[in-house]
Amino acid sequence: MKHEKFHYASLDEVKQKAAELGVSIPFSDNLKLLGESLTVDGHEFANRLAIQPMEGCDGKSNGAPDELTIRRYLRFAKSGAALLWFEATAITPEARANPRQAMLTEENLDDFKRLISDVKETCQRENGFTPVIIMQATHSGRYSKPEGKPAPIIAYNNPIFEKDNPISADRIITDDRLKELEELYAKSARLAELAGFDGVDVKACHRYLMSELLSAYNRPGEYGGSFENRTRLLRNSVQAVKAAVSSNMIVTSRMNIYDGFPRPYGFGAKDDGSVTPDMAEPIELVRILHEELGLNLLDFTIGNPYFNPHVNRPYDMGPYVPNEHPLEGVARMCACITEVASKFPKLSVVSSGNSYLRQFSPYMAAGMIESGHAALIGYGREAFAYPEFANDILKKGALDPKKCCIACGKCTELMRAGSKAGCVVRDGAVYMDLYKKDVLKK
């Protein structure tokens, strides 16, 4: 079995293991690159570090931020990261992944205004700059649970997931409803601008509805089959969002460029029944989004955290033991991002998959920037565990291994159990009791 837990005492040991595995991970010791500023669409990023959208599942029933939501984002505000990518925010009640998922509406707009204002003021006071904050607009699709129980809305039945128990046909979203979603994305974007967000993400990753449509090769109608049809909702929604907001707003997407499933059930794979990555369609989609629709910032990721989580978040402990070494997963993420990003030198790319490397991740971050294959470096679960990570990288030149995420998956276990998500290990005063009650006792 190739899989093993993280045990490296030095970067040289990481490099040696990668060499033994025959995989390539870019490393650079020029950490000063991470402190350089960047301007995209008129917005200045004070450095190259970003906090990826991490759901806390801790909002109010009406979608407004609650106590733990506010606590989390004020911690992020102090982190020193220049980009705060706000967590998945449902565009309509049916799209919520849990009863406490964020959802921005006219009724709770003032709650979001207060939070965004407080986050910006806190970051300015603590770090001397105002962060760029992007809201992730989402439809949870097959993972919708607005009342706390599964209420899937799917693009098509996928035998990899459903096996011999397909979801009923009435849960397959119609073309007419998909057309309606375009305006719902636009409405969410308008509200996001009013709330003080600097940009909006039309979420197309991790097998939520927009992402699932990209692999709807066998779906009939206007949203399935051809590449043009499978990308229709994303393209149209981006255009609707751009028309709905001012030119000051960044319009972007956190998007899957590889699902990790064979065609016709996975995007970004070779058409030979394997799961070998093939970036031809992702490259064409990025070309359209960037060169035709004017998106100058994109956040790339891969895999499905519900079904093959080792692909997008290599781990020490998880729901199964993958038949690959975690460093192979890190290298795959880098390779996919590099292949796509290299085609678009004027595109600012946010990279993913950095947290597994713990204290050695800044060297991969610098390597991705030095190679020109990322402009910003995204950290996800690391921010739950170690919210001050950015300042430690920028000011101390190192991460404290005793504070780093240990890739144990407990934050995800909380989410899957219907609880509120956070770091059980590093933020145990808040989340250990929740873990005992909602995970261990079930």
From TrEMBL:
Q: Does the keyword Disulfide bond apply?
A: no
List the Pfam families hit by this protein, alphabetically: Oxidored_FMN (PF00724)
By its UniProt entry, which InterPro entries does this protein fall under?
A: Aldolase_TIM, NADH_flavin_oxidoreductase, OxRdtase_FMN_N
Q: Which Gene3D superfamilies match?
A: Aldolase class I (3.20.20.70)
Keyword annotations from UniProtKB, A to Z: Flavoprotein, Oxidoreductase
> Keyword Iron on this protein?
no
Looking at the record, the residues that make up the NADH:flavin oxidoreductase/NADH oxidase N-terminal domain are 38-261
For this chain, one GO molecular function annotation is:
oxidoreductase activity
- Identify this protein by name: Flavin oxidoreductase/NADH oxidase
Per the UniProt record, the source organism is: Candidatus Gallacutalibacter pullicola
Q: What is the lineage of its organism?
A: Bacteria, Bacillati, Bacillota, Clostridia, Eubacteriales
